[in-house]
Design brief:
heterodimer; A: alpha+beta; Phenylalanyl-tRNA Synthetase, Chain B, domain 1; Phenylalanyl-tRNA Synthetase, Chain B, domain 3; 5-stranded antiparallel sheet; 40 strands; 26% helix; B: 341 residues; alpha+beta; BirA Bifunctional Protein, domain 2; 7-stranded mixed sheet; 3-stranded antiparallel sheet; 13 helices; 20% strand; binds zinc ion
Chain lengths: 854, 341
C-alpha cells in the first residue's frame, strides 16, 4: 500500500518527517518497505510571456514567474499553453522516469540558442494521466511557488489487517501512536429534489450469504470531465491513474476509507433494478478490461433484469460502464464474502484494487459512509444532484464482538505487568470500547467493527503491547522447566558422518531435492533395466555371476528385491522404470523440478559435471540428504524419507611430492571403509555385482552381516562403483568417475561400540604367503580363508602384492599376503609358524583350489 | 728402537692432521694402529726381539705412543664428524616455501555449518534437536497452525502440492511445533532444522528451497521476555557480544503476540550499510507466543501452559555471517565456493 505523506496529514496531525514516520510505523508493526520522495523541485508557476522561438516550427520561449524573484526563461514545445496559464514547473534537479523506466534529471540547457532553465510538465510526466495532451494547466486560483514535493511511504500490510488498506485506517493507527485525534472526512449531503430514490431505483439481494450489506444512491445531472489536480495528484501518488471525475471519486473514496465503490450508468440499468445473485450456468459478461468472461454458479453478480452488470467486488461490466455521455449515476457500496471474492478473483485471473480489499474483508459498517462520501464528492466536484434517500439491504448485521479481559493476561504472555488503566487506555486509543470493573482489574472490551482479526484475549494483549511499545519486552535469561536431556539423535549422528567425510577430504554439497524423471532415468544404461536398481542402497542387486542382462534376470532381481523387502524393510516395494516410486508435484515451477528425488546420484553427477565445466578437475564430493520413496500401497499417507549418503569422486591426486595419479575404485573404497571404521564396523563386505549405473566389472554391493541374527545373514546398505562411461557421457563427464550411495539408517543400524582386545605380552610371528588361485576367486575370500585357518592366533592378514604373468598359469594370479600371528599366553615358535602355514595351504587348496607358492 | 718410535709418532701425527674425512681417518688407523699390519703394531710385535733390559722402557714408550696416537685420532675423528654433520645439514637445506603435502582436508557446506552452530547454541540452552518430514499434510502445515483452508495467510506461502489440499512440501518448519506437542507433554524445548519449499520465482535472495530452524518452548512460566532473552543469547553467541536485538510487532497466524526479530547489522555495526538497507538492523526471523488456538489444537490448556515459537532463516544468517551476496551460490555447489568454508 502506497501512503502519500501529505494526504495522510489531512486525517491526523503529527510532527515527523517521512523517515521518522516510517520508523514509528515500523515499530508499531506496520512494515515499511521504502520511503519514496517524489516531485522534488517541482513548483507551481505562471506563464507571464510567450513567443515562438526563431527558426523553430513548434518551440515557444516563455517567461515564467514563480511568485518571487526574477522571471525564468523556459523553452516549451507543447501547443496548449498561453500567457497567464498556471503550470507545474520542474526546476533543475527535478527527476522523472521516462517510458523506459530510466531516470531523467532536468538541467538548465540551451535550445536553438534560447536558454531554458527548467521544464513545464504534462500530466503524463507527473504520472497523472497516460495520454499526451500537453502541459498540465492548473486552475487560475492556484497559488504560485507552491512545491509539489511529497513522499510516498510503501507499506507491506499483512492480510489480516484489511482495515489498514486505507488512509483513514493508517491515520487511526497513527493517532493512537502519536496520542493525536483521528479526523474522519466530514460528510455533508446536499440531497436535492422531491423524488425519493425509492421511486427511481430498487435492489433485490438474492444471495444474502454472499452479500452481507448492499447500499446504493442515485446522483443526477453529472457533468463528466476531469478530476481536479489535487485529486489526480493523490491518486497518482497512491499508484492509480486519473480517468474521469466519477471513476476517480470512487477510487479516491476507496483509498481514503477502504470502501470500494462501483458507479453504474443509471440509464443503462434495465428498469433501474439491481439484482444480486449467483451466476447461472453459461452466463457471460464483457468486463471493463475488454475481455469476455465465462461465469460459473459460484460467482456472485450484480445484475439488472436483463442480465449481469458486474462481477461483484471484482470488476464491472462494459455494458453499464459510465462514459462521457453519462449524466446519472447509480452508485453501489457493498460488502461481500471475502472467501467468495478470493475464489472468484482466482478463477477469473482478475485481481483489482477492489477485489484485493474485499478478499481481506471490508467492514460492512463502512458501506454507507463510503456511499455518502462518494455522493458528496460527486455533488462537489461533478455538479451532481444527490437524490434523497438511499437503498439498503443489510440482512444480518454482525453483533459487536465483546471479550472479557483481565490486565493480568498481559503479564501472562508478555512477562511484565500492565496496570488495568494502562491496558484500558491502550485499547481505547485504538477505538476499542472498554468497560472497566474497578474492583478486580477485569474489563469487558468491545471490538470495533473493522477489527475482525481480534477474537480473544491474546489478540488484545498484542494490541496493548504494540501501544506500550515492544521495547518494554526486555529479555531475561530463559529459566523455567527444561525437558530431560536428549538421547543420541539423527542430527548429531549426521554431524559425525559429515565430520568423517570432511576428514576424508570430501567437500559437502547441498542440492535441490526437486528433480525430474528424465534426469533420474538417465542413470539407467538401457531401457530394459528396472529402476529399482536406482534404489541401490535399498534393494538387493543380483550377483554378477548370474550372466548378462535379460528380462529373466530382471525378474529374478525383482523377486529377490521382494523377498528382501518382506523380510527386511516392508517400506520399499519393488518397482520398474515406468513406475518410479516418486513423489510428484501437481504444480511444479518447471518440468525440471517436478518430483522429489529417489536417489542422490543424478544430482551428484550433475554437480560433478558443472564443476568440471567451472574448471575444477579433481573432485571429492559428498551429500547427506533424503530420498523420498512414495508408498502407494501403504496405509501411510506420507512417503518414506530415507537419510542417504552419496559420495562422488573424479580426477587425480594433486601433490608435487609424488607423481600425479588418477583416482580409482580403491580411493572410493577407502572413503567407505573409513566411514565404516568410524562406526567400528568390522562386518562390512564388498561383493562384486552389476548395476546399470556402473561399469560392469567395477561395481560392488555394500553389505553388512547382521550381528543380531542367529545364522549368518547379510543386509544391503548401498552400492558403489565406477560410473558406466555411457552414463557419465550423458551427464557431460568424460573422465573416470566413481559414485557411492549408502542408506544411512541401514548403515547406522550396525553401529557398534568398540570392543577392547587384550594386548599380548608375547611377540608376534610374521609370515609372508603367496597364493596362486583362479582370477575369479575374490581376494577377500582368500584372505578370509587365511584368517580363519589361523584361528584365534591370526592378528592380521594384509595383501601386499597382486601378480599375473610369467611363471603364473593363464587364468590365474598370485596374491601375496603378510600374516601376523600372536598368542595371548606364549611365544610362537618357528614350528608353530610352519604348522600354521601348512594348515593354511591345506584350507586354501580345499576351499578355493589355490596353491601356496614356495 | 726409540728413534723409530719417535719418527713413527711424528709422521703419524703429521699424517693425522692431513686426514680430512672419516674414511681417511679409518685408513690412517689401519696404517698405524691396524691389528695386522699397523706400523705401531709391527713395532710392538718386534718387542720380543728386543733385549730384555730395554724391553720395559721401549714397551712403555711404545704404549705411550699408541695411547697418544689413539687419543689424537679420536679427537680428529670427532672434529671431522662434526664438520661432516655440518656440511651434510647444509646440503639438506629445504625451500620451506614449497607447498605442503596434501592432507586431503574437506569442507562442510556453509549451510550445514550454520545449522550446526545455531542448533548447538540452543542445545546449550537445553533445547532438543528434532527433525520432521519434508512432505507434510495440510493439517500439520496449515490447519493445526491456525491457518484454515481459506485463510489469506496461505497467499503468503505459495505451496508445492503433491495432492492438492492434502499433501504438500512443507512451506515452513512450523508443522513440527504440532508434531512435537502431540508427542510430548510440557516442558518442551526444541529446535527443528530443515529444508522448506516455496513455489515462487527465484532471484538473488529467494530460492524455491531453503533452510529454516524452528524453535519451540512451552511450560507453565515462559513468557515473551524469555523468548527475547533466548534470542538475545543466541544472537550474542552467533554474531558477537556487542550484538543487540530488537522486537517489532508482526503477524503470524500461529503466534499471538507476534514479533519480527532484528539484530544489529554486523557488517556496519548498526551505523547503516547496503546489507541492512541503511537501517542498521537485519531481520533474522519471526517469533511470538504460541497462539492459544494452536495450544488447544494439541490439547494443551492455554490457561495452564504458555510458551513461544520462532523461525530463523538459515541462508539469511549464513549470508550475513560470511558476507555472501547471492543465495543461489548455496545450491550451485561450485568447489571454488565450497572451499572457502
Ligand atoms: Zn549494515
Amino acid at each position: 500500500m502506497k501512503v502519500p505523506y501529505h494526504w495522510l496529514k489531512e486525517y491526523v496531525s503529527f510532527d515527523a518527517s517521512p523517515e521518522e514516520l516510517a520508523e514509528k510505523l515500523t515499530m508499531a508493526g506496520l512494515e515499511v518497505e521504502s520511503v519514496e520522495h517524489v516531485w522534488n523541485n517541482i513548483i507551481t508557476a505562471r506563464i507571464n510571456h510567450l513567443e515562438p522561438v526563431k527558426g523553430s516550427s513548434h518551440l515557444n520561449a516563455t517567461k515564467i514567474f514563480t511568485g518571487e524573484g526574477r522571471e525564468l526563461s523556459v523553452v516549451c514545445g507543447a501547443p496548449n499553453i498561453k500567457e497567464g496559464d498556471i503550470v507545474p514547473l520542474a526546476l533543475p534537479g527535478a527527476q522523472f522516469f521516462n517510458d523506459a523506466g530510466e531516470t531523467l534529471t532536468i538541467q538548465a540547457t540551451k535550445k536553438m540558442g534560447v536558454v531554458s532553465e527548467g521544464m513545464l510538465c504534462s500530466p503524463r510526466e507527473l504520472g497523472l494521466s497516460s495520454d499526451h495532451e500537453g502541459i498540465y494547466i492548473l486552475p487560475n486560483d492556484t497559488p504560485l511557488g507552491v512545491s509539489l514535493a511529497d513522499a510516498v511511504i510503501h507499506l507491506d500490510i499483512k492480510a489480516h489487517r484489511g482495515d489498514l488498506f486505507s488512509m483513514v485506517g493508517i491515520a487511526r493507527e497513527m493517532a493512537a501512536l502519536f496520542g493525536a485525534k483521528l479526523k474522519q472526512p466530514e460528510i455533508k449531503l446536499p440531497e436535492k429534489g422531491k423524488n425519493s430514490i425509492k421511486k427511481m431505483a430498487s435492489i433485490t439481494v438474492k444471495a444474502e450469504d454472499d452479500c452481507p450489506r448492499f447500499t446504493a444512491r442515485v446522483i443526477r445531472n453529472i457533468k463528466m470531465g476531469k478530476a481536479p489536480l489535487w485529486m489526480a495528484q493523490r491518486l497518482a501518488l497512491a499508484g492509480m491513474r486519473s480517468i474521469n471525475v466519477i471513476v476517480d471519486i470512487t477510487n479516491y473514496v476507496m483509498l481514503e476509507l477502504g470502501q470500494p465503490l462501483h458507479a453504474f450508468d443509471y440509464d443503462k440499468v434495465a428498469n433501474h433494478h439491481l439484482i444480486i445473485r449467483r451466476a447461472e450456468p453459461g452466463e457471460t459478461l464483457g468486463t471493463l478490461d475488454g475481455a469476455m468472461r465465462e461465469l460459473t454458479p459460484d460467482m456472485v453478480l450484480v445484475c439488472d433484469e436483463s442480465g449481469p452488470l458486474s462481477v461483484a467486488g471484482v470488476m464491472g461490466g462494459a455494458s453499464s460502464e459510465i462514459s462521457s455521455d453519462t449524466t446519472q449515476i447509480l452508485l453501489e457500496a457493498a460488502s461481500w464474502n471475502p472467501v467468495n471474492i478470493r475464489k472468484t478473483s482466482a478463477k477469473l485471473g482478475l485481481r483489482s484494487e477492489a477485489s484485493s480489499r474485499y478478499e481481506k474483508g471490508v467492514d460492512p459498517e463502512l458501506a454507507l459512509q463510503g456511499l455518502n462520501r462518494a455522493a458528496q464528492l460527486m455533488a462537489e466536484l461533478a455538479g451532481g444532484e444527490i437524490v434523497p434517500g438511499y437503498l439498503e439491504s443489510y440482512a444480518h448485521p454482525s453483533p459487536n464482538v465483546t471479550i472479557p479481559f483481565h490486565a493480568s493476561a498481559c503479564e501472562w504472555l508478555l512477562g511484565y505487568s500492565v496496570t488495568p488503566e494502562e491496558a484500558a487506555g491502550a485499547l481505547r486509543s485504538l477505538e476499542f470500547a472498554v468497560e472497566q470493573n474497578s474492583d478486580d482489574g477485569s474489563m469487558l472490551v468491545t471490538v470495533p467493527s473493522w477489527r475482525g482479526d481480534i477474537l480473544e484475549s491474546a489478540d488484545l494483549v498484542e494490541e496493548i503491547a504494540r501501544e506500550l511499545g515492544y521495547d518494554r519486552i526486555t529479555g531475561k535469561y530463559p529459566t523455567g522447566d527444561a525437558p530431560e536431556p536428549q538421547a543420541a539423535n539423527w542430527f548429531d549422528i549426521q554431524y559425525q558422518f559429515r565430520r568423517r567425510l570432511q576428514q576424508c577430504g570430501c567437500a559437502e554439497i547441498v542440492t535441490y531435492p526437486l528433480t525430474n524423471q528424465r534426469s533420474t532415468l538417465q542413470l539407467l544404461t538401457d531401457e530394459s533395466d528396472t529402476a529399482q536398481l536406482l534404489i541401490g542402497a535399498v534393494d538387493e542387486l543380483a550377483p554378477a555371476e548370474k550372466g548378462k542382462k535379460n528380462n529373466g534376470k530382471n525378474k529374478q532381481k525383482q523377486q529377490s528385491a521382494q523377498s528382501v523387502s518382506e523380510t527386511y524393510d516392508q517400506a520399499i516395494p519393488p518397482l520398474s522404470a515406468d513406475e518410479l516410486p516418486a513423489v510428484r508435484l501437481v504444480n511444479a515451477i518447471s518440468a525440471k523440478m517436478d518430483m522429489l528425488r529417489i536417489t542422490l546420484m543424478n544430482a551428484m553427477l550433475e554437480t560433478i559435471s558443472a564443476n568440471l565445466r567451472y574448471g575444477n578437475a579433481s573432485l571429492r564430493l559428498f551429500e547427506i540428504g533424503r530420498r523420498y520413496i512414495a508408498l502407494p500401497n501403504s496405509e501411510r499417507q506420507l512417503p518414506d524419507e530415507r537419510r542417504t549418503l552419496c559420495v562422488g569422486l573424479t580426477g587425480y591426486t594433486e601433490s608435487w611430492t609424488e607423481p600425479r595419479r588418477e583416482y580409482d575404485f580403491f580411493d572410493m573404497k577407502a572413503i567407505i571403509e573409513n566411514i565404516a571404521g568410524g562406526l567400528h564396523m568390522t562386518n562390512l563386505r564388498f561383493t562384486q555385482t552389476q548395476s546399470p549405473i556402473f561399469h560392469p566389472g567395477r561395481c560392488a554391493l555394500l553389505e553388512v552381516e547382521d550381528s543380531h541374527a542367529k545364522e549368518s545373514r547379510f543386509h544391503t546398505i548401498g552400492v558403489m562403483g565406477e560410473v558406466h562411461p555411457i552414463i557419465a557421457e550423458r551427464f557431460g563427464i568424460s573422465q573416470r568417475t566413481y559414485l557411492c550411495e549408502i542408506d544411512l539408517a541401514r548403515l547406522y543400524l550396525h553401529n557398534t561400540p568398540p570392543r577392547f582386545q587384550p594386548i599380548s605380552r608375547y611377540p608376534a610371528l610374521t609370515r609372508d604367503i603367496a597364493v596362486v588361485a583362479d582370477i575369479s576367486v575374490p581376494a577377500q575370500t582368500i584372505a578370509d580363508v587365511i584368517k580363519a585357518s589361523g584361528g584365534e592366533l591370526t592378528r592380521s592378514v594384509t595383501l601386499f602384492d597382486v601378480y599375473m604373468g610369467d611363471q603364473i598359469p593363464e587364468g590365474k594370479r598370485s596374491l601375496a599376503f603378510t600374516v601376523e600371528y600372536q598368542a595371548q599366553d606364549r611365544n610362537l615358535s618357528d614350528a608353530d609358524g610352519d604348522f600354521l602355514r601348512e594348515q593354511t595351504a591345506n584350507e586354501l587348496k580345499k576351499q578355493v583350489h589355490a596353491v601356496v607358492r614356495e | 728402537m726409540l728413534d723409530l718410535l719417535r719418527i713413527l709418532q711424528e709422521s703419524a701425527l703429521k699424517a693425522l692432521l692431513s686426514a680430512e674425512t672419516s674414511a681417511e681417518i679409518a685408513q690412517w688407523q689401519n696404517l698405524y694402529l691396524g691389528r695386522q699390519d699397523g706400523e705401531l703394531t709391527k713395532i710392538l710385535r718386534g718387542l720380543k726381539d728386543v733385549p730384555a733390559a730395554d724391553r720395559k722402557t721401549i714397551g712403555q714408550r711404545a704404549n705411550e705412543v699408541k695411547n697418544e696416537l689413539e687419543e689424537q685420532a679420536e679427537l680428529r675423528k670427532k672434529a671431522i664428524a662434526e664438520q661432516e654433520l655440518v656440511s651434510a645439514l647444509v646440503a639438506e637445506r629445504l625451500d620451506v616455501t614449497l607447498p605442503a603435502r596434501t592432507l586431503n582436508s574437506g569442507y562442510m557446506h556453509p549451510i550445514s555449518q550454520t545449522i550446526y552452530e545455531i542448533c548447538g547454541i540452543f542445545q546449550k540452552l537445553g533445547f532438543h534437536v528434532i527433525e520432521g518430514p519434508e512432505v507434510e499434510t495440510d493439517y500439520y502445515n496449515f490447519q493445526a497452525l491456525n491457518i484454515p483452508q481459506d485463510h489469506p495467510a496461505r497467499d503468503m506461502q505459495d505451496t508445492f502440492w503433491v495432492e492438492p489440499g492434502q499433501i504438500l512440501l512443507r512451506t515452513q518448519t512450523s508443522p513440527n511445533q504440532i508434531r512435537i506437542m502431540e508427542q510430548t507433554k510440557p516442558p518442551v524445548r526444541a529446535v527443528v532444522p530443515g529444508k522448506v519449499y516455496r513455489n515462487e520465482a527465484t532471484d538473488a535472495t529467494h530460492e524455491a528451497m531453503f533452510h529454516q530452524i524452528e524453535g519451540l518452548a512451552i511450560d507453565s512460566s515462559t513468557t515473551m521476555r524469555d523468548l527475547r532473552g533466548a534470542l538475545e543469547a543466541f544472537a550474542r553467541e552467533l554474531f558477537g557480544p556487542q550484538t543487540k536485538t530488537r522486537f517489532r510487532p508482526s503477524y503470524f497466524p500461529f503466534t499471538e503476540p507476534s514479533a519480527e526479530v532484528d539484530v544489529t547489522c554486523n557488517v556496519c555495526g548498526g551505523s547503516g550499510c547496503r546489507v541492512c538497507k541503511f537501517s542498521g538492523w537485519v531481520e533474522i526471523g519471526g517469533s511470538g507466543m504460541v497462539h492459544p488456538q494452536v495450544l488447544r489444537n494439541v490439547q494443551y490448556d492455554p490457561a495452564v501452559y504458555r510458551g513461544y515459537a520462532f523461525g530463523i532463516g538459515v541462508e539469511r544468517i549464513a549470508m550475513m555471517r560470511y558476507g555472501i551476496n547471492e543465495i543461489r551460490l548455496f545450491s550451485q555447489n561450485d568447489l571454488r565456493f565450497l572451499r572457502q568454508f
